Structure formats: C-alpha cells, structure tokens
Amino acid sequence: MTTATTEPTVGEVMHPGVVTCVRTATAAEVARIMHERRTDCLVILTNGHGVEHSPVVWGLVTRDDLMRPIAAVDPDATAEQLAQTPVVRAPVNLRVGEARSLCAAVGVSHLLVIDPGHGTPLGVVSDMELAHAAPGGRTRRDAACTTPS
Fold it and tell me: Please, is 32 exposed, middle or buried when counting C-beta atoms within 10 Å of its C-beta (0-12, 13-18, 19+)?
C-alpha cells in the first residue's frame, strides 16, 4: 500500500521565531548578532508599534547585504542602510513549491513567515531551506530565536 506524500509547508521548514535588530544597529552589530544567533537573516524592527503594541517589521538584512561594499568599507553603516531585501511575507501554510516560485518571482532569498490570521511573524525561511525541503515532509527545526537582540 502506498501513501500519498504531500509537499511540506514553509511552516515545516522555516527557522521558527525571528532574530531582530533595530534600524540603527551597525554592520558590526548585525554581523555579531548573526554570528551569535547562527542565522543569516535579521528582521529589522521600527520604533513604532502595531496591533497589540507589537513592534512593526521594517525590513530584513541578510548575510548577502553584509557582503556588499558598504559593509566592508563602513562597519558603522546601519541595518537600515544595509537592507536591500524587501520584506516578502508568506503565510505559514504556503507550500514549499509555491514559496520557491514566490522567491524567484520577487527576487528575494528569504521570506518572512507569518500567521495569516494576524500577520504576526512566526519565522524566516531561506531559499536554501526551500531548495533542500524534500518531498514527504522532511523538516528542519532549529531552536526558536524569539527575543530581540
């Protein structure tokens, strides 16, 4: 008897939780946080607050953003200056294949995974994680990183 396999969702392959920084964090601080938290993407928060007084996502800064010349030349460049990755939100139940298509269509390497009911960030998924997600629901779950840095 064969069982049908379903393609995993971004919620099953994402890094649960988000690692954050403020817009004024320097390139050196961003690099330190990424190293300490073992991540290649930080969610940049604004000073403003959204629903239920939760911080508002302003942008994403990735390891690729740090590799750009501004970071190499100026370790005091801010996360706001470094961020080149637009925030593309993906509902937690989006299938991996659809997420790969979304990344390709928009030209991003990371998606912010959200609760579709509230828009609350739940995690981040990279194009590499999407590429390695095997049919049949192989998942990758790292320790949650939910506290702002």
Answer: middle
Q: What structural domains does the chain harbor?
A: 10-132 (3.10.580.10)
CA distance 102 to 96: 10
Residue 45: Cβ within 10 Å count: 22
In this structure, the chain runs to a length of: 149
Q: Which two tokens stand for residue 57?
A: 């996502």
pTM, entire model: 0.78
The pair of structure tokens assigned to 109 is 């390497």
Cα–Cα dist 34/22, whole Å: 13
| Percent of the chain residues past pLDDT 90, beyond the cut | 49
The pair of three-digit structure tokens given for residue 66, joined into one six-digit string: 């740090």
2-14: burial string, b at 16+ Cβ within 10 Å, e else:
eeeeeebbbbbbb
Tell me the pLDDT tens digit for each residue of 39-97. 999 999 886 555 555 668 889 999 888 887 766 667 788 999 998 878 999 999 999 99
